[in-house]
Amino acid sequence: MSGLLAVDLDLNAWAQAMKVGTLNQPARELNREWKDNAVLRLKEKYSGGPMSRYLTARSGKTRRNVRGRLVTGGAEVSVSGPGVFLQEFGGIILPKKGTRLRNGRMIPYLTFRLFQPQDTSKPTGRWVRVRSATIRAKYPARDSAREALASLYLDLEDA
Asked: How confident is the model at residue 13 (pLDDT cuts 50, 70, 90)?
C-alpha cells in the first residue's frame, strides 16, 4: 500500500499573535526553518534501527520520498511510499484469499515470517499464520511536525 501524506503549517498568523514580527524574522523565514527541521526529523524517524519506535529502515525508499516545500502562506512536509498511511494512522491487514488446509477447507490466513533485529531485507524469524494483523498508529509525520514547531518556539523564546 502506498500513498501520500502531507502536513501543512501556516506560521503567519501564529507569528502575528506572538508578536514575533519585531524579531526581524519574517514569517516566510519561520516557515522555511520549520519545514527544514520537520523534514530532518521525519527522515530520522524513517531511518530508525530495529528498536525504533517508528520504523526499521530496509530499502530507504520512504526516507528518500520525504519532501518539504514552501506554499502560499505556509509550508508543507509530505512523505510517500509503501505503507505510509498504515504506519501513520494504523489499521488492520486482512488476507485477500483463503489458505487451503489439510482437510480441504479454505480459511483466510495471513502467513508471513517475522523479522529479527539483525535482519535487513529478508526475514529470518519464525513463521506466523494469523487471520488478521493489527498495525498500531505510530504518527511519525505528526510527531515530526510538532517537534519542529516546539523547537522553533524555543528558538524564538531564546531570541
From this structure: low
